[in-house]
Amino acid sequence: MAVDPGAEIARLRAAVRDLVALSSIPAAWVGREPPDIAAGLAGALVGSLQLDFAFVRLCDPSGAGAVEVTRGNTWKTFPEWLERHLTSGQLSCKEVVADVADVAGAVEPCRGVVIPIGIDAEGGLVAAACDRTDFPTEIDQMLLSIAANHAATAFQNARLIAERIRAEEELRRAGNELEMKVAERTEELRASRARIVAAADETRRRIQRDLHDGAQQRLVHTVITLKLARRALQRQDEDVPALVTEALQQAERANDELRELAHGILPAVLTTGGLRAAVYALASQMPMQVEIGVGVGRLPAAVEATAYYVVAEALTNVAKHSRAGRVTVTAGIEDRTLEVLVRDDGRGGARPDGSGLMGLADRLAALDGRLRIESPADGGTLVAAALPLAGSFPPSQT
């Protein structure tokens, strides 16, 4: 069969022109969204290859994020021949359809082709139809495959870029949230330190005032009385025994006041007997029944003191405000954390922002501890403190 050289040259020139046109398309897809790439491919195929119909499906290898685009006016609805092909599940190889006209005959006879992208169409597929009797030629199929693979690569890049941008945005948002939380925590720590300093200053002033007004005055009185007794003794007066007795009484009262003052700072029973003994001592002063379950031995001094003040403050609040009939105090170690719980059956409604409870929260925060208050208005209050422990401690004992 004779070949017309001029026609063959024209055909090859058209093929090269289409190849160059389709090869330049990926540059135009850079930075575009995945749906735009699929739409751009479908439009380029219809325009460059003079197709009557083009269908493009691009997706991830996992099948997620699929984008489907149809171009061309040959069919008013999705073509039946392509629907049958898609639902058959046979997408692993290229297929040429000799006649894709509708059953109703509404469309002129066309020839179609379906080309998968990747193995088993994991990247999607391209379908095209044209009324040319030689469609699809080998050149048509080559151009469709090249364009489809270019689009699949651009599609994957666009999705990766979109995922990276989304991840960066999430990371930026998380960073901003973290900065806000750090700033809030820093402000809380600053306020907590300020309250601790103020509380320490107030405690020093109270101790100074109590010493001046109490024990110091009695000791001054004792010294004066002893001097009077010495003078009386030198004169051999009969007032000596009475003066000595008065001085002794004043010294004993000063000693009692100093003991009470020291008890307010840190009770001796805590330093000598530990948390369990100190809790029993606190419970003995309560006007209602207190059930105690302190299953811990000796702990670091700072932890014992903080736990003691938690129990002391909670029991003081119970006695003053709760009208409770029963109180339970428990303390135990779990996961290297000391858990202290004080629960009562009183009227509830305790305010966590009270000065006493806020002071406890500050004490606990200084040791990386936490304070939790549960006090519903319908009754009952729970004061729960958690103090992390460094090192190893024996398990709690009942």
What would you note in describing this structure?
With 398 residues, the protein is α+β, with helices and mostly antiparallel strands. The chain has 3 domains: 5-170, Beta-Lactamase; 192-264; 270-388, Histidine kinase-like ATPase, C-terminal domain (Heat Shock Protein 90), CATH 3.30.565. It has helices at residues 5-23, 25-29, 34-48, 80-88, 138-235, 240-265, 268-283, 301-322, 355-366, and strands spanning 53-58, 67-71, 95-97, 111-117, 124-130, 289-294, 326-334, 337-344, 370-374, 381-388. The chain has a 5-stranded antiparallel beta sheet. A 5-stranded mixed beta sheet has the order 6-7-8-10-9, covered by helices on one side. The termini are far apart.
CATH T-level topology of the largest domain: Beta-Lactamase
Order of helices and strands: HHHEEHEEEHHHEHEEHEE
Strand content: 15-25%
Distance between the termini: 105 Å
Please state the CA-atom Rg, rounded to the nearest Å: 45 Å
- So what's the overall shape? rod-shaped
Count of helical regions: 9
Specify the structural class.
alpha+beta
Contiguous uncertain segments of 5+ residues = none
Number of strands: 10
